[in-house]
Write a structure and sequence with these properties.
The complex is a heterodimer of chains A (about 110) and B (about 120). Chain A is built from no helices and 12 strands. Chain A is an all-beta fold and about 110 residues long. The radius of gyration of chain A is 14 Å and the shape is globular. In chain B, about 0% of the residues lie in helices and about 45% in strands. Chain B is globular. Chain B has about 120 residues and is mainly beta. Classes of the chains: A mainly beta (about 110), B mainly beta (about 120). The interface between A and B is medium-sized, with 24 and 25 residues.
Amino acid sequence: AQSVAQPEDQVNVAEGNPLTVKCTYSVSGNPYLFWYVQYPNRGLQFLLKYITGDNLVKGSYGFEAEFNKSQTSFHLKKPSALVSDSALYFCAVRDGNAGNMLTFGGGTRLMVKP
Amino acid sequence: GAGVSQSPSNKVTEKGKDVELRCDPISGHTALYWYRQSLGQGLEFLIYFQGNSAPDKSGLPSDRFSAERTGGSVSTLTIQRTQQEDSAVYLCASSPPGQGLVNEQYFGPGTRLTVT
């Protein structure tokens, strides 16, 4: 079975500081990893994905994520946070060897304070 | 262009009633997904449609839940004899053809279902 863990319910960071939102996963095959963001009263939006290749993936709005196979992690990062980045972030994984299911983590609320 | 649309945006129903939720995917997208997001929870996969293939129903929580996709486009999720634990936001997503299951998904705004 595949699973995703987002160990922090909430992350607080000051505007201008770097941010990290953590994600670890478990799959039996090759992982396909995704980050989505949910702004208040809006649908989920795709940020970035890792399928294969470079471990550092760059996405929308200046976000990036690093795939670490040995630690089974895919942490989301941004060098300088903006107040407008405040939202709910979801990590998701699909097992490349098993089915159509995309499994989401429980979400992490990012609060960026001015 | 137009994104994924869902209707209604909100639905309040009495326990035991049937409800139908509608999803209009992005034109040309062959894959369509339904998820359920309960309060304070992550997204729970319900069902997946890909073109004319048989749907993957592995995430449906009970036989009260069913979904159809007519003509490879619009989808309807039906919940029969609703229970209070069915209260959640139901999200629909679609993704384009090509690259199979590694495509990103485009989500609709969701339907908030409240069962009283």
